Fold:
Amino acid sequence: MKRYLHIALIVVFVAIIALFMLQNLDAATVSFLAISMTMPLAVLIFLVYVLGMLTGGFAVGLLRKSFYGASRKKSEPS
Structure:
């Protein structure tokens, strides 16, 4: 029973994403320095989401590492 619930949730989630992509086929132009790209709005939103995940993951990792290093230095005897 639990397996069918997971499959149903995945199907609903994929359907929502597909509907979002179909409704956002308008082109958007993005410019950075001398580079300019035109792509569908749904693709742009997906790329910004992935970039945010990567940068957020790196920031959390950096903070965790610096916090661990600072707490480790305090606990070591001089």
About this structure: The chain has a mean pLDDT of 84.
